């Protein structure tokens, strides 16, 4: 009927995110595994109040340094607190800082990278010299200085990691903007009198959105690891908050010879979350980045290429 009326049949446009996640499970099994593990830890963090068997600050002096048992599945620390409970609540801190700082990363990197790349000239020169200064400092030392100055609360660490990480990621966003700025449709928009803000929101941002998604997904693991490092050095969220890094720093180092579980289980939690988020972020990067599509971004294409080459 469509051919008789002279109209072409309408094809249903596939959602961009649906296409990415479909390809993720088909082509990137390790990335899909990372997504599942990361989501499981996220659900544990969200429903910690219902999952944890005890309160994170509840002490049982008579059970201090108790080994893993039916009562304490992962053992108890030097104050008699259930280690499983503290690891569950520690997931909240890690995910809050990891996701919150990554959102700020995207916002800061987007603002600096877009305006620096599109405006160019002196505006770009000033911003890039500012970025050079930020990059020249050792990252961990700079974090320690800032956190020790403004405080080591949950929000302070999140905002600090978000802003500093956003400044570093702005170089990636700027590169994408420089490529998009030279596109024909942007030149046509400028020629027809389009304003700067209108061009940025209508042409620049939609075309660099995959890059912003990559920045968000890849930076989560780095922010979680940075928080754990700060907590391990004593600059993280102050006690009695259950932070994985502080659990390794205080209880883990002082009592790990008497209770091996104090160092092993928090370390495993950090390793699992960082590994799962990393492989998921790498898979998303490979699937979204046009330069990697059909190449290293596709297992099936790589296998087909190797068969043809053989």
Description:
The protein has 310 residues and is mainly alpha-helical. It has one domain: Orthogonal Bundle (MetI-like fold), CATH 1.10.3720.10. It is 72% helix and 0% strand. The protein is built from twelve helices and no strands. α2 crosses α11 and α10 packs antiparallel against α11. The N and C termini lie far apart (48 Å). The C terminus is likely disordered.
Chain-wise SSE layout:
Elements: H1 16-27, H2 29-46, H3 48-51, H4 83-119, H5 121-136, H6 139-150, H7 154-181, H8 184-191, H9 196-232, H10 244-255, H11 261-288, H12 299-309
Helix pairs in contact: 2-4, 2-11, 4-5, 4-7, 4-9, 5-7, 6-7, 7-9, 8-9, 9-10, 9-11, 10-11
